[in-house]
Write a structure and sequence with these properties.
The chain has helices at residues 11-19, 37-46, 63-72, 88-96, 109-144, 155-160, 218-235, 250-261, 265-281, 286-301, 317-324, 327-340, 352-366, 373-380, 384-395, 399-417, 422-428, 434-445, 449-460, and strands spanning 2-7, 28-34, 51-55, 78-83, 101-104, 165-170, 180-185, 188-194, 207-208, 241-242. It has 461 residues and is of the alpha/beta class. It has four domains: 2-107, Rossmann fold, CATH 3.40.50; 148-242, no CATH class; 250-396, no CATH class; 402-460, Arc Repressor Mutant, subunit A (Orthogonal Bundle), CATH 1.10.10.60. Helix 5 packs across helix 7 (218-235), helix 8 (250-261) runs antiparallel to helix 9 and helix 10 (286-301) crosses helix 11 (317-324).
Length: 461
């Protein structure tokens, strides 16, 4: 698992260092031994090992000089000094060169093993930290881009990661679960788990990728697991979901497009319900649902109805999930768009006023979420400009002002009745930025949140 270089100019001491403990059982499976420090340096420079155990006093190139040269090359190798000299100047220089440990000869097997275990644990910890950062980067990339970029995988991971694995995604890091887990967001965690290990029984739900033994496939596997996880949330399924490549029958999509083109809207809605119901039964992945949605949207937009002129296809399935959240909303939104195609407004099942009232109820219930006029227009399939104009007309208030007041009203209630900090109240009310929360609060209420809370304390006195 880890590579190791052992250096001592005296062959008997080098053999002693090699045979005194079972290095392989500690995870050091690639071991090179050198009695020539210059040859050792060339090997280390060309193929940096994870760890080096080296004597100090050697001809031509001392152990400390060897470490100096390696540090000049900015190698990340861990160095352990093995010496018969308990000289403070040696120890001081070793510390200055960030040597990991200093062991005195004659070697004690128990002490050597203890240091070797500490080196292994440090290497494993460093690897896990690097892997966590890499997984987080690749996950964020998968959520925001179509690119599966293996260039973001550090060489250290490529060198050590050779086991078959699968990616799991869940809402939190599970307890006593195999693998290495990374918390990406408060409600999103990613795990790299051995493919051969059976997952423990748990009520926690996971999105699970297909297996692979290729580290360069990790970006794609993370995307698979994310898609499986958001698919199970999208359908509201009770069990974990494994990624698969099932598809909606293209003939079904074509039939829907033709029904819309022929203005057979009632039949189109019935067919839409049948297709989405079958998709849920077959747990069709979110990327396929996005393709299905975009296909119908383009057909509907071809009618050029002015009420939905600002609507655009979703660029990514995670974007669709962020707006729609579930299959019922996808169905409702597509039906609303089809209804907007009816030539007679009186025939439409829902008036603009009804839609605005529905939007207001949604805002009242979800004011603490990241709600924008654009996301609501996308969700309810009316143009941004039309929604803005009609919201102001019906509510006698702009959307942004209405949302701000709703949030600040809730903040006032929490300031009066809870012991949450100012920043915590801001977060609860939809303001992750404490400064922006305080500024908005003062703008609407006239005083800062802290002064408002102090006022309540003075009233009690």
């Amino acid at each position: 698992m880890y590579s190791l270089v052992l250096i001592d100019d005296e062959l008997w001491a080098l053999n002693d260092l090699r045979e005194l403990i079972d290095w392989e059982s500690l995870g050091f499976t690639d071991i090179k031994c050198f009695d020539d420090p210059s040859a050792a340096f060339e090997s280390i420079r060309n193929d940096p090992p994870d760890a080096v155990f080296t004597d100090i006093r050697m001809p031509v190139l001392s152990g400390l000089d060897l470490i100096d040269r390696c540090r000049e090359k900015e190698l990340k190798t861990l160095f352990v000094i093995v010496s018969a000299y308990a000289d403070f100047s040696y120890a001081k220089r070793a510390i200055e060169n960030n040597a990991f440990a200093y062991i005195l000869k004659p070697l004690d097997p128990a002490e050597l093993r203890e240091v070797a275990e500490k080196v292994r644990d440090r290497l494993q910890n460093d690897f896990n930290l690097l892997l966590n950062r890499t997984v987080r980067t690749l996950t964020l990339q998968a959520l925001t881009s179509q690119n599966n970029n293996f260039e973001n995988i550090p060489s250290e991971i490529k060198a050590h990661f050779n086991a078959e694995y699968r990616i799991l995604v869940s809402g939190s890091v599970p307890e006593q679960f195999p693998g290495i887990w990374t918390s990406v967001y408060d409600d999103l965690s990613v795990g790299i788990c051995p493919a051969a290990v059976d997952l423990p029984e748990t009520e926690q739900k996971f999105g699970i990728s297909t297996g692979s033994d290729q580290i360069l496939e990790m970006p794609g596997k993370i995307r698979e697991a994310l898609m499986a996880y958001y698919t199970l949330l999208f359908y509201g399924l009770p069990d974990s979901v494994s990624y698969h490549t099932g598809r909606i029958d293209l003939r079904e999509i074509q039939m829907l497009r033709e029904l819309i083109s022929e203005q057979k809207y009632t039949q189109a809605k019935l067919q839409l319900n049948a297709v989405l119901s079958q998709a849920k039964a077959n747990v069709i992945m979110l990327d396929e649902i996005t393709f299905f949605y975009n296909s119908l949207l383009l057909q509907i937009l071809s009618v050029k109805n002015d009420l939905i002129q600002d609507i655009r296809p979703f660029s990514d399935c995670f974007r669709l999930f962020g707006i729609m959240r579930n299959d019922a909303n996808v169905y409702g939104s597509l039906v609303a768009m089809i209804d907007n195609l009816l030539p007679n407004k009186a025939e439409r099942p829902e008036s603009t006023q009804d839609t605005i009232r529905k939007i207001v109820r949604y805002v009242d219930e979800n004011y603490n979420q990241d709600i924008t006029l654009e996301s609501l227009a996308q969700k309810y399939y009316i143009s941004v400009s039309y929604l803005s104009r009609k919201f102001k007309e019906i509510m006698d208030d702009t959307f942004s002002d209405y949302l701000s007041r709703k949030r600040i009203e809730k903040a006032c209630q929490l300031l009066d009745a809870s012991e949450l900090s100012i920043s915590e109240i801001g977060m609860v009310c939809g303001y992750p930025n404490c400064f922006y929360f305080s500024r908005t609060f003062k703008k609407l209420i006239g005083v800062s949140p802290s002064r408002y809370r102090d006022r309540g304390d003075m009233d009690e006195e």
